Amino acid sequence: MAPPSKLAIATGVVLRLVKEEASYHKEIVQQEARIKKSEASEGEENAEYILRQERQALEETKKVLPGMKTKIEQALERLEEELVSDRHLIGAKIGRADW
What we know:
Helix 1 packs antiparallel against helix 2. The chain contains two helices and no strands. It starts with 5 loop residues before the first helix and ends in a 5-residue tail after the last helix. With about 100 residues, it is an all-alpha fold.
């Protein structure tokens, strides 16, 4: 089996990063729900500790998102470069310079 092309790899990277970013957004929603639940539950002996841990986890997850956006933008740039490169290669193979 032939190794995947640079274009296939670049496409896979973009798809993986977008999927990863979506999972972080989903995690934020889940963490916010757990925080609301912890805030509503009274009487637990370690409720303050749990609430503090949940808030910290939420903040850490939110801090990841700007980096993810940068990674996705970089991966998209690489994908666009590969598309242009492949287009030129195809044009050269069929003898058309306008490709």
